[in-house]
Design goal:
Layout lengths: L10 H35 L1 H5 L4 H32 L8 H43 L1
Protein backbone atom coordinates (compact mmCIF):
# COMPACT_ATOMS: atom_id res chain seq x y z
CA UNK A 1 0.00 0.00 0.00
CA UNK A 2 3.04 2.20 -0.22
CA UNK A 3 1.82 3.62 -3.56
CA UNK A 4 -1.24 5.20 -2.04
CA UNK A 5 -1.33 8.98 -2.01
CA UNK A 6 -2.33 10.55 1.27
CA UNK A 7 -3.93 13.95 1.84
CA UNK A 8 -0.99 15.28 3.85
CA UNK A 9 1.56 14.56 1.09
CA UNK A 10 2.90 17.40 -1.00
CA UNK A 11 3.46 17.26 -4.75
CA UNK A 12 7.17 16.83 -4.02
CA UNK A 13 6.44 13.85 -1.75
CA UNK A 14 4.29 12.27 -4.42
CA UNK A 15 6.90 12.79 -7.14
CA UNK A 16 9.59 11.24 -4.93
CA UNK A 17 7.33 8.30 -4.17
CA UNK A 18 6.85 7.59 -7.87
CA UNK A 19 10.54 8.10 -8.62
CA UNK A 20 11.44 5.69 -5.82
CA UNK A 21 8.94 3.17 -7.18
CA UNK A 22 10.51 3.43 -10.66
CA UNK A 23 13.97 2.88 -9.22
CA UNK A 24 12.90 -0.22 -7.28
CA UNK A 25 11.25 -1.61 -10.41
CA UNK A 26 14.38 -0.95 -12.49
CA UNK A 27 16.58 -2.68 -9.92
CA UNK A 28 14.31 -5.71 -10.00
CA UNK A 29 14.15 -5.76 -13.81
CA UNK A 30 17.95 -5.49 -14.14
CA UNK A 31 18.33 -8.35 -11.68
CA UNK A 32 15.85 -10.52 -13.58
CA UNK A 33 17.64 -9.82 -16.87
CA UNK A 34 20.93 -10.81 -15.20
CA UNK A 35 19.47 -14.18 -14.11
CA UNK A 36 17.86 -14.83 -17.49
CA UNK A 37 21.15 -14.11 -19.26
CA UNK A 38 22.90 -16.70 -17.08
CA UNK A 39 20.17 -19.21 -17.89
CA UNK A 40 20.35 -18.53 -21.63
CA UNK A 41 24.14 -18.84 -21.55
CA UNK A 42 23.92 -22.23 -19.85
CA UNK A 43 21.26 -23.41 -22.28
CA UNK A 44 23.11 -22.25 -25.39
CA UNK A 45 26.31 -23.97 -24.19
CA UNK A 46 24.55 -27.10 -22.94
CA UNK A 47 25.09 -30.51 -24.49
CA UNK A 48 21.41 -30.59 -25.47
CA UNK A 49 21.99 -27.98 -28.16
CA UNK A 50 25.29 -29.52 -29.25
CA UNK A 51 23.54 -32.78 -30.10
CA UNK A 52 20.52 -31.28 -31.84
CA UNK A 53 20.56 -30.24 -35.47
CA UNK A 54 20.35 -26.60 -34.53
CA UNK A 55 21.43 -23.77 -36.77
CA UNK A 56 24.99 -23.38 -35.48
CA UNK A 57 25.47 -19.93 -37.02
CA UNK A 58 22.27 -18.67 -35.39
CA UNK A 59 23.41 -20.19 -32.09
CA UNK A 60 26.83 -18.50 -32.34
CA UNK A 61 25.15 -15.18 -33.14
CA UNK A 62 22.90 -15.53 -30.10
CA UNK A 63 25.90 -16.30 -27.90
CA UNK A 64 27.75 -13.24 -29.21
CA UNK A 65 24.66 -11.10 -28.72
CA UNK A 66 24.29 -12.56 -25.23
CA UNK A 67 27.69 -11.20 -24.25
CA UNK A 68 26.75 -7.78 -25.60
CA UNK A 69 23.38 -7.80 -23.84
CA UNK A 70 25.08 -8.81 -20.58
CA UNK A 71 27.59 -5.95 -20.88
CA UNK A 72 24.83 -3.45 -21.69
CA UNK A 73 22.72 -4.66 -18.77
CA UNK A 74 25.66 -4.30 -16.38
CA UNK A 75 26.30 -0.82 -17.75
CA UNK A 76 22.69 0.13 -16.99
CA UNK A 77 23.06 -1.35 -13.53
CA UNK A 78 26.10 0.86 -12.92
CA UNK A 79 24.28 3.87 -14.39
CA UNK A 80 21.33 3.23 -12.10
CA UNK A 81 23.60 3.28 -9.05
CA UNK A 82 25.08 6.60 -10.21
CA UNK A 83 21.59 7.92 -10.93
CA UNK A 84 20.38 6.95 -7.45
CA UNK A 85 23.33 8.69 -5.83
CA UNK A 86 22.70 11.88 -7.81
CA UNK A 87 18.97 11.70 -7.16
CA UNK A 88 19.57 11.96 -3.43
CA UNK A 89 20.43 15.61 -4.06
CA UNK A 90 16.85 16.33 -5.17
CA UNK A 91 15.86 16.07 -1.51
CA UNK A 92 18.09 19.09 -0.88
CA UNK A 93 16.40 21.22 -3.55
CA UNK A 94 14.71 24.35 -2.35
CA UNK A 95 13.52 25.80 -5.65
CA UNK A 96 11.53 24.71 -8.68
CA UNK A 97 14.47 25.01 -11.08
CA UNK A 98 16.47 22.50 -9.06
CA UNK A 99 13.56 20.06 -8.80
CA UNK A 100 12.84 20.41 -12.52
CA UNK A 101 16.45 19.53 -13.30
CA UNK A 102 16.20 16.24 -11.38
CA UNK A 103 12.72 15.44 -12.69
CA UNK A 104 13.96 15.92 -16.26
CA UNK A 105 16.96 13.68 -15.55
CA UNK A 106 14.60 11.05 -14.18
CA UNK A 107 12.39 11.29 -17.26
CA UNK A 108 15.39 10.93 -19.59
CA UNK A 109 16.80 8.02 -17.61
CA UNK A 110 13.39 6.31 -17.59
CA UNK A 111 13.14 6.56 -21.38
CA UNK A 112 16.69 5.25 -21.78
CA UNK A 113 16.43 2.28 -19.42
CA UNK A 114 12.98 1.31 -20.66
CA UNK A 115 14.39 1.31 -24.19
CA UNK A 116 17.02 -1.15 -22.93
CA UNK A 117 14.33 -3.39 -21.43
CA UNK A 118 12.37 -3.27 -24.69
CA UNK A 119 15.45 -4.23 -26.73
CA UNK A 120 16.18 -7.02 -24.25
CA UNK A 121 12.65 -8.40 -24.58
CA UNK A 122 13.19 -8.58 -28.37
CA UNK A 123 16.50 -10.43 -27.86
CA UNK A 124 14.85 -12.76 -25.33
CA UNK A 125 12.08 -13.56 -27.79
CA UNK A 126 14.70 -14.53 -30.40
CA UNK A 127 16.46 -16.86 -27.95
CA UNK A 128 13.20 -18.50 -26.94
CA UNK A 129 12.19 -18.95 -30.58
CA UNK A 130 15.59 -20.54 -31.27
CA UNK A 131 15.04 -22.97 -28.38
CA UNK A 132 11.52 -23.68 -29.61
CA UNK A 133 12.67 -24.49 -33.15
CA UNK A 134 15.46 -26.75 -31.85
CA UNK A 135 13.12 -28.59 -29.52
CA UNK A 136 10.45 -28.85 -32.21
CA UNK A 137 12.94 -30.74 -34.39
CA UNK A 138 13.27 -33.35 -31.62
CA UNK A 139 9.53 -33.99 -31.33
Amino acid sequence: MKDLIYKHETIDDIQMKFMDRDIEQWKEDLSIVRVEILFFKRMLHSSIFRVLNSNQQKKENLITDLTNVKDINESYSDSLIEFINKLEMVRECDDVQCETFYLNNHTRFRADIESHFSAYRFYKMNVILFFDICLEDVA
